[in-house]
Amino acid sequence: MSLIKERSIDRATQETLKKAKKENIPTCWDRLDAQQPQCGFGLLGLCCTVCNMGPCRIDPFGEGAAAGVCGANADTIAARNLARKIATGASAHSDHGRDVAHAASLVTKVHSHPESHPEGHRHHHDYEILDIGKLKLLAAEFGIDTAKPEEQIARELSKKLLEEFGRQEGELVFTKRAPLKRREIWKKLGITPRGIDREVVELLHTTTMGVDNDYKNIIATGMRCALSDGWGGSMIATDVQDVILGSPEPVRGKVNLGVLKEDQVNIVVHGHEPILSEMAVKASRDPELLKLAKDKGAEGINLAGICCTANEVLMRHGIAVAGNFLQQELAIVTGAVEVMMVDVQCIMPALHEVAACFHTKLITTNSKARFPGVSHVEFTPEKAYETAKQIIRVGVENFSNRKKDRVNIPKEEMDLVAGFTKEVVAQMLGGKYRGTYRPLNEAIISGRIRGLAGVVGCNNPKQTHDFAHTELVKELIKKDVLVLQTGCSAIACAKQGLLLPEAAAQYAGNGLREICDAVGIPPVLHLGSCVDNSRILTAASHIISEGGLGEDLSDIPAAGCAPEWMSEKAITIGFYFVASGVYTVFGASPFAVLGSKNLTHYLTHDIEEIVGGRFDFADTPVKMAELMIAHIDKKRKALNLKPVI
Amino acid sequence: MSKLVAQAGIRGAHAVYKQAHEFFQKALQEKGPSYKVAFPETAFYFPMANAMLGVKVETIHDIEPVLKHASELLPEIPSEKVWLPYLGDTLNAGMATLFCEEIITALRYAYGQEPQKDCVGFFSDTVMRSLGIQLVDGRLPGFAAILGAAPDNKTAVSIVRELQSRNILAFVGSSVKGRSIIDQLVEENVQMGWDNYIVPYGRDTVSGIFPLNWAISSALTFGGLKAGDAQKCLLYTKERVFAFGLVLGELDDIKYATGAGAIAMGFPIIADTDIPEIKPSGITAYEALVKELDHKKIVSRCIEVRGIKVKVSNIPIPVPYAAAFEGERVRKEHLSVEFGGKSSLAFEYLSMRPSDEVEDGNVEIIGPDIDALKNGEKSMPLALIVEVAGRKMQKDFEPILERQIHRFMNYAMGIMHVGQRNMIWIRISTDTFAKGFRLKHIGVLLHAMLHQEYSAIADKVQVKIYTREEDVKKLLEQAKNAYDERDERLSGMTDESVDTFYSCTLCQSFAPNHICIISPERLGLCGAYSWLDGKASHEINRTGPNQPIVTGAALDSKMGVWKNINDFVYQNSNKSIERVSMYSLMDSPQSSCGCFECIVAIIPEVNGVMVVNRDYAGMTPSGMTFTTLAGSVGGGVQIPGFLGVGKLYLTSKKFISAEGGLKRVVWMPTSLKEELGEKLKKRVEEVNDPGLLDKIADESSVTTLEELTEYLSKANHPALTMDPIM
Q1: Gap between the Cα atoms of A457 and A571, Å rounded
Q2: Per-residue pLDDT tens for A40-81?
Q3: For residue A31, what is the enclosing H or E element?
């Protein structure tokens, strides 16, 4: 059994793991131990369960079977397995986007003062257009006349957005945001995504028994599917959420288990889709519920988040983040959570067992994600506020069941600044009148900023929790790389104080520090949830159109990394970044492709010639940083930029 | 820490807003809402509000929405810990300050409080237009807005004098601890006013809005921008109005706030006190906020930070200076003094230096000047060291700028300059010496001309001239190393070692379809542009005549054909040339403009080619002189069998390599053989035919085809047995 300090670098996590151990509550780390040794064929991608002639597996040592029953070799099997993960990841983000677009179609009211969020005036059951400016920009992209009444624009836009999912031909509208040169590359390769659902279906089709046997072709189809996520489903999710939930602006927040309150009703929202949790934010301030909480002996209602739902409500409201992916069980283990309300994605089935050890009520809200024996309150956007209020009421009423002697909330909590978006970047650099990316481009050109890094992704108990994220990011900012973050990676770094503006003076290299000091930003910018990786794509496109850093996304001195990934969504994100020209490093264990030398070599070498980006795999944060910096320096050299200051 | 600046600026903006708001309330009460408010003689109402918001403020009532907008722009003061981004906020605070200062000063006019004593106040449209013309025609390279007071009167005077000497218009005003630079200058009897380029605007910081009003009006007037097109107006002032703020003495919150507004307009602020600096660029062209504690350096620091290009229109040397004198020789009988040639050790060397090591305009003579020569002595050693600093200067540009010394010196009457590097030969005539020309004038003219012609890359130029033998010897060693490094860089390069060639369309002005493709092993046909020069020229001017072409995969590496090159040539030759072979004379050779140093021409009868250089006036075995041949080769058309080339191309491995290279050459003038000397010898050894040079006929024995045929068979020239050239 692994030592607690090997399980996580985070003290709150360590402390709560000790509590779990003492109380005999197994967590994912224990289950990982129980899984040892994990299946070698699975790790190498050599096990095929596609048809009923199998399961087949290829002997990685070249002594036994070199082909499955159908004749599929290691290349085909590994590529198909990988492609299916791409399809699944894409389907998750894109289905999220669809739900948001659907919610937008129900909007009947446009908020007249979008800048001043006066919540008191809102009709609780309604979603509203909160960012009219962004609504019009999106509408213009879809060729909608923006002179029309705003309600009508919203209706027409959501119809067009929903059509993107079922589109059969042509190109996804948001792909036009990419620089011309990038679009030409896609066109030449035939991987410009045509319709969001179509690309998922077509990819799955190609991987069924006896269809595509050319691993390179399978990967090309996979990239097209991944692009339909990054420049399609995810981008729709992000942008429409901004329109109906409000665009984030720089905001302070707090993070780690210490945000749970001993004297308040603790409601934890967990999952990925903010359309319900947004309503939970409002409902947690409902006077009726607050009064009820008082009556039950609580000082108030404390909402906190886990995973990307947390990131969404953090970005828009500064709601506290209780933890990232590996802390979901531990939040319950504190004994202080009345309700954990979950929506979709990354919700461990084990939560039910953990919650059963405490008074905590686990409540599912989405018909796509249910647990046997767990109470379900179906969420529909039409009665969103009502649903949220109903769930929170359960929490408030559950407060009196909390067993005080079993409560142990770790003290650890950390301040942070979040709320960065592609729009905020322009504003924070130039203000209202000079909003521009120019200072960012010039900071890179002049060598104050070496380059940009997107450090994103999950946690994985196979690696010491949060270690790779934080060490990698520290290494990058020390070398003047401005780091953009999303998802659980951002939460990991936030816990270590890297999302504080003060972190620049403590950790950043001279040039980056100078920029952070001039602008007043942390050296690590939190861009939101994992669907918000699309913000990185659009920001990068803005950098190109601002000029001076090449003509294509692949020209930018930038690199991506998912140091502790576990989800299929991470693979899809990796693929849409690589297919957009970004060099991307994966930590934890590599994709399950190592069993195919050809496929591995293709993904880590040859593909760069084709799409401008490629994958690399590394197991330590120092190595990841080295690889990323070497790539950034290579791109600086190609652009003939000045040496880093 | 920039946060301190942000905090001060935002605090200041709140204070100015409060002042504007109170003044507005007072005026509203005392004069009523329909009372007319206006600056004198302007069609731009409140110019800042007009340009940014498109509003036309004519009455006190009209002020209210502007004031409301300013209040909406006012951000929170950044917190001590866990602060939110403040740069954009500070710029917003700055703009709010400018709106409020405009309101305050306009109301002051309504109350008869402006202009202040000795001050011009608001600049009228007439003044703005006349300044604008001077801005456009270059008489005014820039504008300084000085705020505060110098530590003493003498410093105040020396700063404005220095600005005057560079034709920089200085707006002076504001004050520090009750003391204004205006009074310092009045006390020192400095004449002020538009004609003197020293214009007092007012004694408080709020009146600093007047020069900014003028700047923003110029965006509307000269930029032709629409009122309300805020971002474009501000980009115009950033890119076109070369103004900066110079703050003397301590900064208070209001100066920071006004400075933030100036920065939003693209104008950097330079202070003589120990303030936190903001160096990153983007809102301003270079640094936004800097300090320079040394008053002697402060003006040149301002010029550098704003990127003002000072042009020296009149070169102060005692002899006429013009391109007309370029070809003039100084003969022995008129010789006053000479350097180099065979007379003494002499060289020239231009190098790049860090900005803080170069004092612009500095010319130093180390050793005796030319008037120290004793009777009868007519030569002395010379090391001409030119040091250039520039934000865009690169090591690769050194040889390009150095090569200009030749031309720049020849422009001076009675100066002869021949050769380059340590092969120079400079002569000064007795007449020129008598007119007072001394060594320092070489530095003066080089400084002026480098600024004039290379202002894009040379920010600062200084010249050091050494005339003691021991100094020259020592420095020459360093220079030689640099020369060798430069040669080394190109000599090691092959066409295969790079992935990019450069185009040259410089000559399309007279040969519209011609385009040169320059590779490491094939320089431009004019002989003046190597691949490195093409590369450097592209860096100096990204949209200029030398564009990079990524070669990609070759279609035919023997002939030197690349698809990307073909595509580029097709597009840029007005679609007249579809295919170009870099290494062939016979199959789609490059076209020629008219500038070629040599012509390579086929002589089918002997299965070879002849080469004739421009300097050779005699007859060639083709039956045509250079001039006659040139008439049919030039004009941007491809003529198989005829090719214009640079001399050095003859010594390249890629010289018509598709047809067998140098071994095809059957005739060339002796002068060309001599000029290429060692390089040609080395090349014939490389092709394993050490006797080849002698086998190539020249005009000393051959000027007709018959003589040539006979000569070649006697010499057993390799071309006779090579594959048929046609």
Answers
A1: 10
A2: 999 999 999 999 999 999 999 989 999 999 999 999 999 999
A3: helix A28-35
pLDDT band at A158 (very low <50, low <70, confident <90, very high): very high
pLDDT at B311: 66
| Cα distances (angstroms) measured from residue B703 to each of A502, B666, B668 | 83, 12, 10
User: Among all residues of chain A, which has the CA nearest to that of B91?
Assistant: A431
What residue ranges define each of the domains in chain A, with the CATH number in brackets? Answer: 35-69 (no CATH), 74-245 (1.20.1270.30), 257-406 (3.40.50.2030), 421-638 (3.40.50.2030)
ipTM: 0.94
Cross-strand bridge partners of residue B502: B518, B548
- Which residue in A368, A325, A323 sits closest to A350, CA to CA? A325
Least Cα distance to B629 among B606, B589, B600, B654 occurs for B600
Strand, coil or helix: B429: strand
Residues of chain A with pLDDT > 90: what percent? 93
Closest chain B residue to A640 measured between Cα atoms?
B539
Token pair, residue A445, equals: 């050109």
Please confirm whether the linkage preceding A114 is cis (ω < 30° from 0).
no
- Rounded to whole angstroms, the Cα distance separating B689 from B674 reads 18
Which residue in the set A415, A439, A502 is minimally distant from B280, CB to CB?
A439
Q: Under 8 Å CB-to-CB from B67, ≥6 apart: which residues?
A: B17, B20, B21, B24, B99, B100, B103
Mean pLDDT, residues A582-602: 95
CATH topology of domain B2-110: Helicase, Ruva Protein; domain 3 (1.10.8)
Could you tell me which chain B residue has the CA closest to the CA of A419?
B84
Helix (H) or strand (E) holding B399: helix B398-410
User: How far does Cα B543 stand from its chain's mean position?
Assistant: 14
Cα distance between residue B403 and residue B537, in whole Å = 13
Query: Rounded to the nearest 10 degrees, how much is the dihedral formed by the CA atoms of A539, A545, A551, A554?
Result: 0
Q: Which long-range contacts (CB under 8 A, 24 or more apart) does B493-497 make?
A: B493/B520, B493/B521, B493/B531, B494/B520, B494/B521, B494/B653, B495/B519, B495/B520, B495/B521, B495/B522, B495/B560, B495/B582, B495/B654
Chain B hits for A548, CB-CB cut-off 8 Å, are none
Delimit the domains of chain B by residue range.
Answer: 2-110, 125-306, 323-490, 496-721
Q: What is the CA radius of gyration of chain B?
A: 33
For A148, counting Cβ atoms within 10 Å of its Cβ (0-12 exposed, 13-18 middle, 19+ buried), the class is middle
Instruction: Give the per-residue SS3 of B153-198.
Output: HHHHHHHHHHHHHCCCEEEEECCECCECHHHHHHHCCCCCEHHHCE
Q: How far apart are CA B259 and CA A144, in angstroms?
A: 42
Do B125-306 and B323-490 have matching folds?
no
Q: Which fold has domain B125-306?
A: Rossmann fold (3.40.50)
- Residue A352 and residue A328 in contact, taking contact as beta carbons nearer than 8 Å: no
Q: Which of B653, B656, B654, B650 is nearest to B674 (CA)?
A: B650
* Cα A454 from Cα A473, distance rounded (Å): 10
Chain-chain contact of B81 with A415 (C-beta, under 8 angstroms):
yes
Architecture in CATH of B496-721: 3-Layer(aba) Sandwich (3.40)
What tokens were used for A192? 């410009």
B323-490: what fold?
3.30.1650
On whether the CB atoms of residues A389 and A426 are closer than 8 A, the answer is no
Q: Is A519 on the interface with B (CB under 8 A)?
A: yes
Q: Which of B78, B81, B281 lies at the smallest CB-CB distance from A446?
A: B281
Q: Which of A431, A442, A448 sits opposite B91 (nearest CB)?
A: A431
Backbone phi, psi, residue A361, to 5°: -100, 120
The residue length of chain A stands at 645
Using one digit for the tens of pLDDT, what is the confidence trace for B351-374?
A: 999 998 999 899 999 999 999 988
Contact A80, A566 (CB under 8 A): no
Q: Are the C-beta atoms of B439 and B357 separated by less than 8 Å? A: no
